[in-house]
Design goal:
mainly alpha; two-stranded antiparallel sheet; two-stranded antiparallel ribbon; 8 strands; 59% helix; 4% strand
Length: 509
């Protein structure tokens, strides 16, 4: 990382800082491993005693002292707190204030922000502008306490809907379509999986360039967006969690649990944002799913789970129930209730794309497996009704903007509407679907990265325009530990192997 770089103003530097800090921290952990020589059971006091009793005094030279590491850690955390009060999305430059959004998210979930909470918000914004980290840490602590102790708003519509706690309760309230046979050994199936992964890269690459803006402002800035605005890349945090899921799925197949997936999160992923970052912090402290998604996590109905449902549908082709169950297990690591239903919805869309040729049928079937008494259902039903009312998707989007204006652009609800609009009006036309989802605005990379694969899986590689298949997509770059570079062909092969293996395991039970 460049010395003197301001991470709060340039989050791209923050990504590189995360990578560098992660490598150094991993090395520290490896150096601190202590083992008992005789191989017997060891107790904590023995480890501590061995370390103390075998320590040989050494007078350190000035350059050997480790105070500089403490300064680096301090700077790292100060940059983190500044980012929470004011940052710009790395790929698009869109402005964010995550602490303000936390209060907004709690209000969306039926809680009331009192006068003191709003006063703390204004103080925090001022302290961040002044780069006053001492005050900012103090204000943030107080504000986080307010978030933990907010009172319910009895007038909020949120409490009129049912809150689902686990998959078993959810499953009892819906009817899934029967699973359909898929020839896993066919070249056609491999092509669809390849088309799905490639389309996720295409959608994420275009979306990363423009996420975080309104449709109107995108039109003003760029006109109609039908192609890459700059050279596309594969650096995208969304896919990181799907790769971690695939690791766990490869080991456990359809018996994979949320704790299995969370173990790969904590092993592979050094940092996240909003709901995922808070879940990672909980996991580091030993708070496991589902509590990792509910404890001190205002963002657990944001888009984070919805953005990673595609892999759950891909490994359960033509089997909506299994796709939904996998999505629930994955979703509850960082999300709850409506946030998890966002992932379930995308998983089912992806699963059904392998077997249904009509896009409208896919959408309507996916809607039908969301319980009618949950708030997420009211959102996607509203979006579907808009599709039936309006001939032009712009009118449908305007209705969505009006209804969900109080929700953050990263919340699951307005983005779910955008997904439905693009799929419905695009109606299996790849380029039209891509243009609509891009021009809808909001969290474009998450949305395009989920719904373009639905079209591609349904139609195959031939539906993808050659001009969108960039050579750089042959290899993915990530910020994951031990997976900084992944070849696309190898990812496809690993996905196919994991699916076939999981089917075999299930068939012998």
């Amino acid at each position: 990382m460049e010395k003197g770089g301001d991470l709060s103003k340039n989050p791209t530097l923050f990504v590189h800082f995360i990578l560098d800090f992660s490598d150094k921290y991993d090395m520290i952990l490896k150096c601190r491993k202590i083992c008992r020589k005789d191989g017997g059971d060891v107790q904590a006091w023995e480890i501590a005693a061995e370390l103390f009793e075998n320590a040989v005094p050494k007078l350190l030279e000035e350059e050997e002292q480790t105070w500089e590491d403490n300064f680096s850690v301090s700077d790292f955390y100060d940059q983190q707190i500044l980012l929470q009060w004011g940052s710009n999305v790395p790929g698009s430059g869109a402005p964010e204030r995550i602490m303000v959004a936390a209060v907004q998210a709690m209000e969306n979930r039926g809680y009331r922000a009192d006068e003191e909470t709003m006063h703390l918000l204004m103080e925090g914004i001022a302290a961040a502008k002044a780069q006053d980290c001492v005050s900012l840490w103090q204000i943030s602590s107080q504000l986080n306490h307010k978030l933990l102790t907010m009172e319910k708003d009895s007038d909020s519509d949120y409490w009129t809907y049912h809150c689902y706690k686990d998959f078993r309760e959810y499953e009892a309230h819906v009817t899934f379509p029967s699973p359909q046979y898929i020839n896993l050994d066919s070249e056609d199936f491999r092509e669809r999986v390849l088309a799905g992964w490639l389309s996720q890269l295409i959608g994420a690459a275009i979306g990363t360039m423009v996420e975080g803006y309104t449709s109107e402002n995108l039109y003003k800035a760029y006109g109609r967006i039908t192609d890459y605005l700059r050279r596309p890349g594969t650096y995208n945090d969304d896919i990181t969690y799907e790769l971690a899921f695939l690791k766990a799925f490869h080991e456990k197949g359809y018996d994979v649990t949320s704790k299995d997936i969370a173990s790969w999160w904590i092993g592979l992923i050094p940092a996240g944002w909003s709901a995922e970052e808070l879940a990672l912090r909980n996991l580091r402290m030993g708070i496991l799913p589902p509590e990792s998604g509910t404890f001190a996590n205002p963002f657990n109905e944001w888009i984070g789970a919805q953005m990673r449902g595609g892999i759950c549908g891909m490994v359960a082709p033509g089997d909506a129930r299994t796709a939904a169950q996998l999505a629930w297990s994955d979703g509850e690591i960082s999300h709850a209730n409506n946030g998890i239903f966002g992932e379930v919805f995308n998983a089912v869309l992806t699963s059904l794309a392998f077997v249904y040729s009509d896009m409208h049928t896919i959408i309507e079937t996916a809607i039908s497996v969301i319980p009618e008494d949950c708030e997420y259902y009211s959102v996607i039903r509203f979006a579907h009704e808009c599709c039936l009312i309006y001939d032009d998707w712009h009118d449908a989007l305007a209705a969505c903007r009006k209804r969900f204006r109080r929700y953050n652009w990263i919340h699951a609800y307005p983005n779910a509407c955008c997904e439905i609009f693009a799929l419905w009006y695009g109606n299996s036309d790849y380029e039209k679907t891509l243009e609509i989802i891009t021009m809808c605005g909001y969290d474009v990379d998450c949305n395009a990265g989920m719904i373009l694969p639905v079209v591609a899986i349904q139609r195959g590689m031939s539906i993808i325009p050659e001009r969108l298949i960039h050579p750089d997509f042959a290899e993915l770059s990530t910020y994951m530990r031990e997976a900084r570079n992944i070849k696309l062909e190898e990812l496809v092969d690993d996905t196919l192997l994991s699916i076939k293996q999981a089917y075999e395991w299930r068939s012998v039970k």
